[in-house]
Amino acid sequence: MPFVAAKCLLDRENVTLLQSQAVPAPQNAAFPCRQTSCGFRFFSHASGRKGKVCCRKATPPSMLCCRTACSPRETIDAFARRKRDSRLLVVLCSGRRHPAHPPAHTCLSRSRSMAEAFGLVRRRKSRLASTKPGRYLAILVLAVSVVAGGRSAFAADASIPKPTAATYTELADHLEAYCFERLLPFWYPRCVDREHGGFLPHIRNDNTPGTNNDKTIVFQARMTWTAAAVMLHAPDRADTFRPYVEHGITFLQSTMWDERDGGFFWGLDRGGNPTPRYGTEKHLYGTSFGMYAAATAYRATESPEALKLAQAAFRWLETHAHDPSYGGYFEAYHRSGRPILEPPKPGTNGRQNTERDLLGTPYGYKSMNSHIHLLEALTELYRVWPDPGVRRRLDEVFRIVRDKIVVEPGCMNLYFTRDWRAVPDHDSFGHDVETAYLLLEAAEVMGLGHDPKTLSVARSLVDHALRYGWDEENGGFYDRGFAFQPAFAREKIWWTQAEGLNALLLMHERFPDPEAAYWNAFYRQWRFIETHQIHPLYGEWYATVTEDGPDEAADLAQPWKGPYHNTRAILNTIERLRRLAAKNGQATDTD
């Protein structure tokens, strides 16, 4: 039973029931409409402090303040998102679409019957004394087993549809519409910098252009890659996205690439000049993304210039960055390409901060993060340029990631000495599930798609993240934890949710089972994303969601937050759902 609801008109002065009307339980109440735009904020009456205070921590814990009046459906949907157990909820709304001043809404979450609820309203009517007399719309929502606390990620859920051809197709259509009607229009063409080239990376939380428009190789490459990926996914839209790919490649080639010494600069100001923040330092991580974008751009457009740029990046790394003694790659470089193996003196390369490199790794160490994205780039380059030298490095990095970086019981070390001795640190659940996908993608390109060891390692990464990093109550992956302990960093980062969505459906496809375990987790993951992570008005994803709700103050776009993770996850999910639908439909026809 998802919801039982009643709509009532209350007299504010006497708090008496004037009119009552049954409201049918919304079919998707447990999967709220993504277009709801209710402005709920928690409010602690005891302290008088406004802001995102968890309802359970407020005093009294049942008080809720809503600065925006809501329709009955929006109110039901909003509480469906917040609900924690099986108690009766009452919301008093002004009935207007405009903000109420002062807020006149209260949530009575302790009530278990309508009579008790109205009794509580009467006893607390003094809280509404500062508002104007009139009638208020009250929504009573009896939430029965909305999200049972402590439920396993693999537990059966009546609200999750069975994985059939029709379900796959319906969800794929839904994701396709979201991607092309809401997600991509947020980024293109608004981020195109027609004055200086490249893409503008800063959009504030209120959807207005920002001023932090330094051009980093990571953001520029990801914007270029995304446009190319869309071309490959939707050939009928290629004419729309081709100009963005060409625009991006031109900027990567003419501005981000160092004409004097080769390699990609990490960051430049909007006009294309070095800044003290980044200096002229270069990095494996950024070079990998430049290579990745150029190779994908070539696959989408068949532009010789794009392929030449990808090849140049690979050869530059071969010349300057490969570690011939222990394998893998050095990560930070002077402008000349010489590896930086110890903290340089202040001001070296024109950069102010010299404690850690541009990715945050201590100088001289190797990192999981750089090498998994190098694996990603080499996979794409080998796909379009099957050169023996590329294959040799792809094999090497693939085995480093699978056999050295990934460890039992399915997690990864973050940092390593030059000879690949692990430096103890935490586990990143987002990188775990992302690497599961990257390993299987690389294995397919290398002709190892059915390799038992790779399949086992990839699955262990996802299973470990589900066991220790999964929110069993609401769905979604937490940020960080340790090998055998629950997550200690429980915020939900946008890119982690995207990579989780991609990996869970991949596991469902590769490891089907009668209980549809991965499908259940995948569907709950998408439900969390659509309900909590996607901004209801702008379509882009909130950077962070905590137990108190989304971080609405954070920028919607910045140099580290582009469309790469969520667009790739959505496009891959659409393609995989359609493939599953076709396969499932054929099986049904055969039966």
What's a quick, concise take on this entry?
With 591 residues, this protein is an alpha+beta fold. The chain is built from 14 helices and 22 strands.
- Look at the structure and give the CATH class of the largest domain: Mainly Alpha
Largest sheet: 4 strands, antiparallel
SSE-based structural type: alpha+beta
What's the overall geometry?
A: globular
- Tally of individual domains: 3
What is the averaged pLDDT score? 80
Describe this structure in words.
The protein is of the alpha+beta class and 591 residues long. It folds into three domains: 3-143, no CATH class; 157-187 and 429-591, Glycosyltransferase (Alpha/alpha barrel), CATH 1.50.10.10; 201-425, Alpha/alpha barrel (Glycosyltransferase). Helix content is 42%, strand content 13%. A hairpin with a 4-residue loop joins strand 3 (40-44) and strand 4. The longest helix has 27 residues, at 564-590. The chain is globular and about 60 Å long. The relative contact order is 0.10. Residues 1-118 and 120-156 have low confidence and may be disordered.
List the helices and strands and how they pair.
Elements: E1 3-11, E2 17-23, E3 40-44, E4 49-50, E5 64-66, H1 72-82, E6 88-93, H2 114-123, E7 135-143, H3 165-187, E8 215-216, H4 217-233, H5 238-256, E9 267-268, E10 282-283, H6 284-301, H7 304-320, E11 332-333, E12 366-367, H8 368-384, H9 388-405, E13 406-407, E14 411-412, E15 415-416, E16 422-423, E17 427-428, H10 429-445, H11 452-469, E18 480-482, E19 485-489, E20 492-493, H12 494-510, H13 517-533, E21 544-546, E22 549-550, H14 564-590
Antiparallel strand pairs: 1-2, 1-7, 3-4, 3-5, 6-7, 8-9, 10-11, 12-15, 13-14, 15-16, 17-18, 18-19, 20-21, 21-22
Helix pairs in contact: 3-14, 4-5, 4-6, 4-14, 5-6, 6-7, 6-8, 8-9, 8-10, 9-10, 10-11, 10-12, 12-13, 12-14
